[in-house]
Amino acid sequence: MNAPDHRERAAVGRSLDPQDERRHSRVLIVDDEPVIAETIGEFLMGEGYEVATALDGATALERLAAFAPDVVLCDIQLPGIDGLDFLDRVVRDRPETMVLMITAFATVESAVAAFRRGAHDYLIKPVLFDELLAKLERMAQYRHLVRQNQALRRALQREVGPESLLGVSPQIEEIRAWIRKVGPSPSTVLITGESGTGKELVARALHSLGPAPDEPFLAVNCAALAEEDLEIQLFGQVRSDAHGLEPETVGLFLAAGQGTVFLDEVGELPLAAQAKLLRVIENKEVLPVRATQSVAVRARIIAASNKNLGAEVAAGRFRADLFYRLNVLFLTIPPLRERPEDIPVLVEALLERHARTLGKRIRGVDREAMRLILSAPWRGNVRELENAVQRAIILGEGPTLTAENFPSELVEATGAGEPDDLRSYLAQAERHHLRRILTRCGGDKREAARRLGLGLSSLYRKLDEHNIIL
Fold this sequence. Notes:
By secondary structure, this protein is an alpha/beta fold. About 45% of the residues lie in helices and about 15% in strands.
């Protein structure tokens, strides 16, 4: 490396205090006045920062690549490459680097321009060292929070990765292997399956292994919003006010950055929104509502549907070209009833999670309850199973859940747990009926007695006989 001349100096200093975290912070000072660059540099080195200086934009670009600064102090007025143009390069090439602009002419316009182009703060010449240190400390705190957030996201990704899909069935094993293979790809994915099978969980697992796992995962239920509201939420909106300003509603595709947009129940998209979504996939751009100019987007799209989209295409309710664009990588999640060997694993995990949340000490379910659970149809799949387990935990009194803690409708649907002798069968039926009526009455025993055609004292005797506590 050539030695610096009289117009330019690069210096590196290290904190003498090994406990001072600032020794890990690198600051690049870009100013065309050598005295200012050297003075600020020497001061920051004395405060424990690693420092490099440059007197023009071209040299600053070289320093940016070689020195890899945490913070750049940059004068707005520079020879050659303008300070704001250099700011653009920093934002593009090193988005993790924070930029503090320095100007001798503080105006609202210059500050706004710097902020809009990615600066984090600005200083006015002559630079006051106390103010400089305060701003650098705030930036260090911000970087620390960003690192904490990234660590939390990585921890969350471990929780939502392929291993978060619980089960021991061959189907689940195949799905986990498929996620590991497909996850790193930026390609569009279509997931189908009945409601409650875990389509969003699979989408989050794909995102956790994707090209930008630290970027947002944003989900929208296409069936839950009116058509106009859905388009605004997805694509954004631009509208003019009386002063000619253009406040924007940022849509999910822009807000996601390089992350993932998860379109749940994509089969419910209106045809007009389908056309816009097709444009997003084909051209990687969105046209916000009421806008005249498109905006580039980079988000990955994962779509899900509980409908047969091929049949929807044949019926004219879903665009064929959009279906083919979405169907680049395809996965169907089987219903819970087709993989009963996963149910005990799911019950154990759900029991542990909700018992802890509800503050209940429950060890498990008894044999009769597990037979009931295994024989149930679970038309609502894992979501229905979770609701049933959570309800059973709330109603359960002992350390083990019994069949009686589960919904009576579940027992009726399965015929499980029914005794052979008539007396026991009638007693069980009476117990289930009492529970059902009490639930319908919200626990109001007087109203339940009226509906049952019993006196209130008779109802209390029945409840005591069947050990029903509500």
